[in-house]
Amino acid sequence: MNKILVTGGTGYIGSHTVVELFNAGYTPVIVDNLSNSNIKILDQIERIIGVRPEFHQLDLCDENKTREFVRSQSGITGVIHFAASKAVGESVADPLKYYHNNFFSLLNLLNSYRDTPVNFVFSSSCTVYGEPDTLPVTESAPVKKATSPYGNTKQIAEEILSETALAYNNYNIIALRYFNPVGAHDTALIGELPNGVPQNLLPFITQTAIGKREKLTVFGNDYDTPDGSCIRDYIHVVDLAKAHVAAINLLEKGNPNGRYDVFNIGTGNGYSVIEAISAFEKAAGQKLNYTFGPRREGDIIKVWGDVTKSSKELNWTAQLGIDEMMASAWAWEKYLKDNPIL
């Protein structure tokens, strides 16, 4: 079966996608520089699928090494590109890190495949919409000025990919604009594993509940939303992983929309931060210690997606709800407590 290169494949979404690719009959090949992931995740993936995936430690920002790696590989027909820095708050504090890592890795990959036909799936984000004028937001909504350097890297990357697909016949590209991935694999063997202080909501929730963190700070309770907290479209990471497999499938069959396309990947439902906390408290059977703090620079107030296009054209629909998201994230956190080797 076809080999699919997964960059950032030991990371949160990447590791789950490796599992789903294998389940769908593909042979995943992982590239990761391990800057925000743990090599021991390979052991966990092997426990789930029964096979140790091929792994290469490589910094894709190194042009020569990236080109050498691509030339050394045979049989790779698709690339799923996750490898990027991804925290909104950190990007505001250190924008140069984000522009360097997110652009050089993408450009080096694309340049390395200049002479090779390739199906390319890009990890984009709903942040390209900025603060949407109407909700739910569709793929035809205007791409507005980004509210953070992270969001700006996704917007510019999409422009690069669109222009690349137009100029070169060998690229077939899909950008998946996904919303807020949460949860963990149902085996509780892989899940979100941030280095240091978490930048995303759910690992901070679970680490607070397990006792690693004293309390959770909710950034802002005075937004124009029903309970004053930000609203997001949370999606289970396993559903998100399956969306990447669906994108590869569509590219292999030939996307009738052309060599470049975009899809929203979410549930179509918006939950506030407070509603997410309540859902976690229900799943965990315990109250969470949280307090309110000031708004965080770069945060969008409310966004959730219209996923009609993904359902009809990508043949993909999210299957797991907020309860499964929270229960699986909690199971993963408890697994980590009993298995500190990770």
Automatic annotation (TrEMBL):
It is an enzyme of class 5 (isomerase). GO terms for molecular function: UDP-glucose 4-epimerase activity. Pathway: Carbohydrate metabolism; galactose metabolism. Its EC number is 5.1.3.2. Keywords: Carbohydrate metabolism, Galactose metabolism, Isomerase, NAD. Pfam families: Epimerase. Residues 4-266 form the NAD-dependent epimerase/dehydratase domain. Homodimer. InterPro entries: Epimerase_deHydtase, NAD(P)-bd_dom_sf, UDP_G4E. PANTHER family: UDP-GLUCOSE 4-EPIMERASE (PTHR43725:SF47). The keyword NAD applies. The keyword NAD applies. It catalyses: UDP-alpha-D-glucose = UDP-alpha-D-galactose. This is UDP-glucose 4-epimerase. Belongs to the NAD(P)-dependent epimerase/dehydratase family. NCBIfam families: galE. Its cofactor is NAD(+).
